[in-house]
Amino acid sequence: MKKLFITIVSLSILFMSCKGGDKSEKTAETTTEKSDVKTSTAICLLDKLSIRETPSAKGKWITSMSLGESVTFTEEEETDATTKKLYYKVKLTDGKEGWTRATFLAVNGKVGAMLEEASMYKRPDLLTKTDKKYSVMDIIAITENKGDWMKVKGRRAEGEYIEEGWIKSSNISNDEIDIATAKFARSAMSKSTMTERIKALEEVINNQDLSSSKFINVLKSKIADYKTKNVAIDVKDVKVEEVAK
User: Fold this and answer.
1) Residue 195 has pLDDT above 50, yes or no
2) Could you say which DSSP state residue 214 is in?
3) Which of 155, 125, 137 has its CA nearest to residue 46?
4) Are 184 and 167 in the same domain?
């Protein structure tokens, strides 16, 4: 009887150990599956780019992204059956998720701002120069490096579409203060009147968080230029009024 009891107890312990082992194995498998989920960083190439609940222009609007903003690409993609446009699913730093146009994202890119006007090349070769140029403070995504060349993607100040090309790396700043300054300055310079542009640019250069930007002197020169043009416009208006009288 004693031997039978010991045998039963031993079998019970063995059974419980096996069961617990299965549970541990399942937990380990689940953890592994979760860690295998792939994501990538993506850079937004268009200001106020919409994020929607579904991969469609008709999907419910959730929020928008800022030009140069870094988001997480979840590796999920869908094509809108109606428009045939490709959409990527992204996750923002505040946890919000949704779908946005793939065309306006640079996957695995790094954001940068143009320090100088720079010619675009078809390939990392001086012989492949094009007639296109990036302007000072254009915000781009860097997608590839090769020696002292960088492949960039973005919309030029003088362009209408998202373009890709190669430029010399010395023309780019990846400092977050320079990038933020360039973004706000570009927005300021798009105002409809000279007076509005001057006011908006003055707000940028008076922002202490941006005071160390390499673009501050550029913006001061731009403000002086706008003020000169504004005076010329005012004088012209006065002359027109005098003639009208």
Assistant:
1) yes
2) T
3) 155
4) no
Question: Maximum Cα–Cα distance for the chain, whole Å?
Answer: 125
Tokens of 135: 């302007």
Query: 3-state DSSP call for residue 200?
Result: helix
Q: Helices marked H in the chain — which ranges?
A: 2-35, 176-189, 194-205, 216-244
pLDDT in tens, 2-54: 454 445 545 455 445 445 445 444 444 443 444 455 789 999 999 999 999 99
C-alpha to C-alpha distance for 58 and 5, rounded to whole angstroms: 71
Judge whether 121 and 166 are in contact, CB under 8 Å: yes
For residue 7, is it within any domain? no
Helix H or strand E encompassing 77: strand 70-79
**What residue type is 191 in one-letter code?**
K
Domain boundary residue, one of 60, 75, 107? 107
Tokens of 99: 């779908």
**Tokens (6 digits) for 154:** 């973005």
Answer yes or no: do 46 and 98 share one domain.
yes
Helix or strand (DSSP H, E) at 151: strand 149-154
- What integer pLDDT is reported at residue 34 of this predicted model? 43
Domain span at residue 141 reads 110-173
Residue 244 tokens read as 């009208």
CB atoms near residue 237 (< 10 Å): 10
97-101 and 86-91: which strand pairing?
antiparallel
Joined together, the tokens standing for residue 196 give 């509005």
Pairing mode of beta strands 40-44, 70-79: antiparallel
